[in-house]
Each structure stands twice: as structure tokens, then as C-alpha cells.
Amino acid sequence: SGRFAVTTALGEQRENVSGRFHLEIRGSQQAVELASPLGTTVARVEIEPGGARATGAQMQEVRGADADTLTQQLLGWPLPVSGLVDWIEGRPVPTRVARVEREGGRVVLVEQDGWTIRLPEYSEATARPRRLVLERPSAANTPSVVLRLIVDEPGGSNQTGIFGCITGFTENKS
User: Fold this and answer.
1) CB 23 within 8 A of CB 82
2) Angle, CA 82 vertex, CA 77 and CA 88 arms, to 5°
3) Which of 59, 100, 131, 163 has the largest count of CB atoms under 10 Å?
4) Taking a C-beta distance cutoff of 8 angstroms, is the pair 162, 24 a contact?
5) DSSP-assigned beta bridge partners for residue 147
């Protein structure tokens, strides 16, 4: 399980959102889910061979070939769904170009797909990243994004799947 906090900025507009994330992996299929503090799904993004589908809080659905573009349409900011599975494991997506920095044998930085992924803390229990900071600069009408992830330790009280369930979503727009 894990927690997230995201800050987006475009011009003078700034938005902060935080909560918990749920990441499911089943073979070649992936799903990322975000929910309200009461457990209501805010967004769900599913990737399978040949396409992606994103569903919002009011059950609006968008489909397309690129999950990252769909999240931009649904959330108003890009969520790098297509890279999360690998980045959360402390590695770049193997089929795409990346720049990687290592310290002591561990990946500490990945630059890939326009994102800079910093891995400042690893779990002693799993040897996987415990904290990740994903950053993307603004471009055209797309806001800059700073996404912070904290992956729960195994056996934590909130663990409900491979990486967790979102149960605390708050939003602050200014």
C-alpha cells in the first residue's frame, strides 16, 4: 500500500492533492486507483494490451491507446501510469530510453518519458524503494507535476494488495 501527494502548477494556478494509491498487476494488465477519504473511487486507470481506460468519480470514462494521456484528460494533470510499475520497483521501463544514476548498487535517479524519478529511500525489509519523487516540468497547457509516493512496508495495517489501497484523498485548489 502507499500514500501519495501531488502538486501541480500552471501559471498562477496551483493544486495539491493527497491520498492513498492502489496498484494492481495481473499479467500484462495494470490498474491504478485513487479514492476519497470515505473509499469512493476518484479515478481508476486500467492498461491492457492494445489500449487503456480511465474512469472518473462520476463514472465518466475515456478510452485510448495511452494511459498517461487519458489521466491528463480525466484529472487535469498527467499521472505516469505507464511507468509506475517499473519505477516503484526501482528500475526504468526496460523498453524505453532512460538515463539512470546509481549509488551503492541502487538506482537513485531515473530520467524517462519526460519525468525525473528520484528514489531517496529504500525499504530495509524489501530492498525496494520506500519513497519516490516524480517530477515533470510544465509544457504548453500541461501543468508541472511533483508526485511524491511513500510505499507502505509489508504487513502494514493498510496493506490490501500488491501496493495498497487509496483511502485518503484530499484536494486543495488555490
Assistant:
1) no
2) 100
3) 163
4) yes
5) 6, 134
- What are the tens digits of pLDDT across the range 97-127? 999 999 999 999 999 999 999 999 999 999 9
The span from the CA of 91 to the CA of 84, in Å, is 10
Residue 143 and residue 145: Cα distance in Å, rounded? 6
Residue 30 corresponds to which cell in the numbers above? 495494470
DSSP 55-111: EETT--EEEES-HHHHHHHHHSS---HHHHHHHTTTS--TTS--EEEEETTEEEEEE
- Specify the pairing of strand 13-26 against strand 2-10: antiparallel
Digit-coded pLDDT (tens) for 53-79: 999 878 889 999 988 889 888 888 888
The C-alpha cell of 101 is what?
544514476
Look up the pTM and report it: 0.84
How far is residue 123's CA from residue 117's CA, in Å, rounded to a whole number?
Answer: 17
Sorted by sequence, the CB contacts under 8 Å of residue 47 that are 6+ apart come out as 29, 30, 31, 67, 81, 82
Distance of CA 98 to the CA centre of its chain: 18
**pLDDT at 169 exceeding the cut of 70:** no
